[in-house]
Amino acid sequence: MLNKSFVDVPADHPFPIQNLPYGVFSPRGQTPRCGVAIGDFVVDLAMLVNAGLLTHREVDLRSAFEAPSLNEFMAMGKPVWHDVRRRLQELLGEHTAVLRDDPSLRARAFHRRDSVEMHLPAQIGDFTDFYSSRQHATNVGTMFRDPANALLPNWLHIPVGYHGRSSSVVVSGTPIRRPLGQTKPADAPPVFGPCRLLDFELEVGFFTGPGNALGHAIPIEDARDHIFGLVLVNDWSARDIQKWEYVPLGPFLAKNFATTISPWVVPLEALEFCRVPTGTQEPEPLPYLQGDEEGLFDIKLDVAIRAPKMKAPHVVGRSNMRNLYWTMAQQLAHHSVGGCNVRPGDLMASGTISGSEPESYGSMLELAWRGTRPVKLPDGSERTFIQDGDSVVMTGYAQGDGFRIGFGEAEGTVVPAREG
Amino acid sequence: MLNKSFVDVPADHPFPIQNLPYGVFSPRGQTPRCGVAIGDFVVDLAMLVNAGLLTHREVDLRSAFEAPSLNEFMAMGKPVWHDVRRRLQELLGEHTAVLRDDPSLRARAFHRRDSVEMHLPAQIGDFTDFYSSRQHATNVGTMFRDPANALLPNWLHIPVGYHGRSSSVVVSGTPIRRPLGQTKPADAPPVFGPCRLLDFELEVGFFTGPGNALGHAIPIEDARDHIFGLVLVNDWSARDIQKWEYVPLGPFLAKNFATTISPWVVPLEALEFCRVPTGTQEPEPLPYLQGDEEGLFDIKLDVAIRAPKMKAPHVVGRSNMRNLYWTMAQQLAHHSVGGCNVRPGDLMASGTISGSEPESYGSMLELAWRGTRPVKLPDGSERTFIQDGDSVVMTGYAQGDGFRIGFGEAEGTVVPAREG
Description:
26 strands, homodimer, eight-stranded mixed beta sheet, 19% helix, SH3 type barrels, alpha+beta, 11 helices, five-stranded antiparallel beta sheet, Fumarylacetoacetate hydrolase, domain 2
């Protein structure tokens, strides 16, 4: 692999040439199109196609990269993703002159990242959220059900998940309005008003590739070929609304007011180097869930809060994607095994990723343990849940040998609830 | 209203001039486009636009009707829907010569319905399924939880619903493959295999119109303006898979393998005449759910089974849309009250509509009461759930004075599960 670009990228920068995450951006005043991030720049991919530098014998990359979403590219499948990635690494490499030595072309194809607007990377057909961290499921079960039987009976057999709302998935930077809804005081009828227990959930999601036809399935041994890349996900949650509504059909208004994702989709191929062994799964899963060795990833994940008066976000939780029990391949195999069709651009998130230590939990519910252990912020204030004006910032990276594969950030600032 | 067309439509026909449902069809060998049904014909709407017969001063109807989905038209809103409908009733009326007396234009614009292929009427952004029949919720609660407390505490306060899977919503006539999945025998570990308790759910769904921006809401008094029209919905369900998976996050694989809808979207305006009073809601709902008087519809609903050897479907359940507790406006107001954005072409279904009599139940689970009261078919066989080869056919209509507003049908035939 080429490992150095003519673009200057410090060793701790999230977007070196080893990463090359894809996103949808618009230069000032122009329409959205597909790009790839390197260092502090975005490269306009359609511009490279139009300059004759980026072609593929089998597919129409111009159509794919001129589109305002990555869906078409996601549909092209792993061999194309691989070829395009290799070509981009070549084009951006320090020893390739064609871009490096053509200031005019570079001026057209390169944009400073801080000068462009980012959009959702895909038109998300369906959004699914799993519940795949054992520690998180155990914490929630301990708080709300029974510490002695914190995990529900199906949890160790099924990568439990539910269908989320795709319309309200928003890109990092979108303000998050505190939701209104019904909550139920003890021994009184339900009341309507702003959510009082607003929370984040620290997750990682993946965008799907070609997918499967209805009535077919993606066997676990093929699942990796259908994972295009990963993003950070903040599955905003209204705990008080959730508590009253979720039995028996699951979370609804408690989750569907907003889900924030990071704008840059890190290719799965860029993360292969940080795979770690799938943990012991006991009892042994059913055969359709077996065989995904090295199914986890050593990706450090931070969640931070920035209160209005704070200059910088303060990290309140440090987790790692290796804290998952079920792997992405298991999630995808399970999701499709009944015949449900997966389409290019579907988003599937992990569920809150909590580690075993209290400081590694991935939600305020757990970090402040249902309000009993308030989290202190540097401005002297305390949090049990998220307040109006707070920004929640999630970041993540995998550390390589001399480089980092970063995700950028998933940020959302909470604005007050609508009037009545 | 004009009440007679130059197209011959018998009084018991589902698609008289008072109906004019919208759909997406393709004439043999041609691309999908928007049409309207009258009698045994489909009228190509883009053809009417191109002939200069159908225009609107504010919107581009050509773009809307040349599209392979109704989303663009759905986005245009109620005043446009009303104007277009009125103009179509005029054009198709017996006293309007322009189409009636132009055989050449009619030959281009009219297609026999039995000669065209029907498609999904919209690109469904998100599919939501409610649970709004009190009898159904009571029946399920009685069977699976506690007859003395069959309704869960939130049910009379919240139009309970959950997010479904939009990718697997299919148009009537699409074969339904029996899903595979995990089920849990009593006192033994879970097993993997074909669903054994395959069921239908008799529902009505609505497609949404303009919708709301994220963080805003659709107040109940505006909700009717965001309902474009209605379709029949069969929310296929795998009861054995559902039982094992659904706690705590709700149904997932039990529902996401397929949902069948009827192809013709009956405009809400065509159904105004059959509105009936919203039933008594006690306890009184919270204010944001109040005020939708006459929120129900007197729409007869039948569900029938045709086993492979039977010539015609046999009706096993006769229900009515007036058997709902929560109205569509209440569902929509609730769905959006937390700030969740609704988009044109979202589909929201009622949940199983069961009446108070055992023959009016809307699922096999209830009709055969969890397998204890098998349903007899005319071929001498019995059913507790749906077998391979069975077709499930849902139909519905509202009876007017001398005409019927029909829905056509939502049909699906079950094919055997995939091998392992």
